[in-house]
Amino acid sequence: MSDFFNFDTLSLHAGQTIDKEFGARATPIYQTTSFVFPDTDTASSIFNLERGGHAYSRITNPTVSVLEQRIAALEGGSAAVCTASGMAATFCAITAILSQGDHIVASSQMYGGNISLMKNTLPRFGITTTFVDPTDIGGFRDAVEENTRLIYGELIGNPGLDILDLEAIAEIAAASRIPFMVDATFNTPYLCRCLDYGANMTIHSVTKWLGGHGTAIGGVVVDGGNFDWGAAGKYPTITEPYAPFQGINLWEEFGPSAFATRIRAEAMRDFGPSMAPMTAFLLLQGIETLSLRMEKHHSNTEQMLEFLSNHDQVSWVNHPSLPSHPSHALARKYLPKGAGSIVSFGVNGGREAGKAFIENVQLASHLANVGDAKTLIIHPASTTHSRIDAEALVAAGISEDMIRLSVGLEDIRDLKADFETGFRAAKRAADA
Amino acid sequence: MYFEVGGKQVFATTGGKPFDKNLPTVVFLHGSGLDHTFWGLHARFFAFRKYSVIAPDLPGHTHSEGPPLASIEEMADWLHAVLDALGADNISLVAHSQGCLVALEFTSRYPQRVNSVSFIASGLATPVNDALINAAEKNPDVAIGMMMAWGFGPAGHLHQGPVPGNSMVAGGRQVMRGNVPNELATDLKACNAYSNGETAAAKISCPVQVILAGKDRMAPRKAGLQLVAHLPSPELHIIDESGHMLPVEAPDECRKLLRDFIFSHNPA
Question: Within chain A, which residues score under 70 in pLDDT?
Fold first, then answer.
């Protein structure tokens, strides 16, 4: 062994130790709430963070840990903590380091749940957010205030698909000694490892492409281990004594995994958004084929882009791989293997035509998810982003006629035929 | 905790308990390019079992002020100054890799301070190949990659760490990246230049144990057995499935061996 294992190998093997009793090749599902301690000394040492080990599945579970360590390996992170959902991951990551009076600078073009969390919910706990157009680098710099403690964004904005300039924003964050957290759900580590470009931690809704089969909800926070919490001097939850663990100083004791340890020690214990072992198993099955699926997602996306771009019923098509997209250059830089399999487009004839299209396709499922093996469509303005106001809708890059398409793995000929059926219905609605 | 030695700031973790010079003290010495966090799965264990613990960052490593020390002999004298500053005696040394060379030299120079020594993954000397030293001087990140690739055994490479959710390789890489410039090259050159191991080992008379890793590609078993041959009746243990980074790759086995040895030879 002269070097490190490569991505596809890690997708299959990372994190799993073959069980010594039966030699199970697949990761066993440890469907148990708790674990029998061999003796009292071992029990107390696990509770006191003196050693690794499992006590109670709200905090850690062997099946979930395999998933955590596999994702950490794929991302190049020093540690990962899985949660019950992507939103739980975001909430746990933010509250691990921000408290009342702190401030976030965030991209305005994000999943509606992220925007709602920062715009409506976190202010109730005294944490405020300034939203910035993701293409406005100077805007990020200008928005940093004395009490700013986090810069947050999605590499591929949802659903406008603008690409965040990771290195430029990482530079702003580093200059202010503020961590840069990236929701990397749409890219997965297969398309881009954001930590390699200066991000300090990533968030994933594992539900989406990582899991990839629409069978389980889950999230993960990945600690890049590359932020100097001590030098920053403004993150007491990491660098000051933590009373519940006999005054432990997480930064001093755990160094590059201090942030992940805080999430484990506080959020998983006190908030409790743990991932179920069966969920971890399902998501692990997805990750085993991540590379294969992402390649097919992208070959289908390329053909679908060509199809839509040349279709009379389509008024516009948006995807970062198209030269016309404002983020095309950034997509080529950060996403050379493909800029994701989310496409947005407009149907000629406005809202009624769009509605007819969605209701008349058969293979493309109308639902609120992305990153499934199956093709999915939705009308964001009336669904995923319906809870944000008109101004925020515009800032998020959403128009009334927008249809968001998550390109799946079906035979592209069948998908095109399915869309033709939808477009014929759209034309009838528009002509009526 | 932070304290001063020779006008320079030094950091050492005490494992979560205040340092008490009246207790028997376990001193942990890290290897090239690493820091106190290497002992995270050991220091806290002893600190909560009536031992005082000191796991210092060598000068120029993570929280300790630089510059890094250029020779193993200087590191041994620096450790002596650290213990003077803290008033620590009655110590059990636990050392890994480069730290073992420091422990050899320190114990031979200041035998009255040492109750026992645990050598982990080391020989009498640590010859370092030119490619690694050159990389450390010209492109530290490449050298760090080599150290991680060679340092970890199969479990490390497959991210099967003992701490749920943690990647040992990525964590080690970040620790090494956090040190001062030239620190890794200085460490490696100090190891490469050290040639007093055989003489130092002959002067050691306190109880010693040697823990070797079966899949060690940086301090191969053959080199470790040479160390064993020159020490006075050491306990020898070989953990077959571990690589060089044994205290983090096989912490439970390692901790048990350290516990039994230190509890026996330096009881709290």
Answer: 1-2, 385, 388, 396
Q: What is the pLDDT of residue A388?
A: 67
Say if residue A25 is in the same domain as residue A95: yes
Tally C-beta pairs within 8 A across A and B. 140
Distance CA B109, CA B101 (A): 12
**Domain co-membership, A252 together with A299:** no
Delineate the domains of chain B, giving CATH numbers in brackets.
2-265 (3.40.50.1820)
* pLDDT for the residue A428: 95
**Residue A116 forms part of a structural domain:** yes
Could you tell me the two tokens for A243? 């009373």
CB contact under 8 A, B177 and A80: no
ipTM attached to this prediction: 0.95
Type of residue found at A143: A
Q: Which residues of chain B have a Cβ shorter than 8 Å from any chain A Cβ?
A: 11, 13, 16, 35-37, 40-41, 44-45, 48, 62-63, 145, 148-149, 154-155, 157-167, 169-171, 173-175, 177-178, 251-252, 255
pLDDT values of chain B reduced to their tens digit, one per residue, 268 residues: 999 999 999 999 999 999 999 999 999 999 999 999 999 999 999 999 999 999 999 999 999 999 999 999 999 999 999 999 999 999 999 999 999 999 999 999 999 999 999 999 999 999 999 999 999 999 999 999 999 999 999 999 999 988 999 999 999 999 999 887 789 999 999 999 999 999 999 999 999 999 999 999 999 999 999 999 999 899 999 999 999 999 999 999 999 999 999 999 999 9
Boundary-marking domain end, from A251, A286, A321: A286
**Residue A419 and residue A304 in one domain:** yes
Domain assignment present for residue A402? The answer is yes
Q: Is the dihedral of CA A382, A383, A387, A391 positive or negative?
A: negative
Check residue B97 and give its pLDDT: 97
Nearest to A45 among B45, B160, B166 (CB): B45
For B268, the token pair is 């709290």
Cα B144 from chain centroid?
Answer: 17
Contact by Cβ (8 Å): A359, A351: no
Domain count along chain A: 2
A222 found inside a domain: yes
Burial state string for B242-257 with b = 16 or more CB within 10 A and e = fewer than 16: bbbbbbbbbbebbbeb
The residues that bridge with A148 in the sheet, in sequence order, are A103
Contact B167 A4 (CB under 8 A): no
B1, with CB counted inside 10 A (0-12, 13-18, 19+), is middle
- Check A4 against B148: CB less than 8 A apart: yes
Are A19 and A40 part of one and the same domain? yes
> What is the C-alpha to C-alpha distance for residues B15 and A427, in angstroms, rounded to an integer?
71
CATH code at position A163: 3.40.640.10
Task: Give the domain extent around A363.
Answer: 291-431
- Whether chain B has a CB inside 8 Å of the CB on A204: the answer is no
Closest CB to A225: pick one of B148, B163, B174.
B174
Q: Is there a domain that residue A1 lies in?
A: no
**A286, A312, A333 - which closes a domain:** A286
Residue A365 is part of a domain; what is its CATH number? 3.90.1150.10
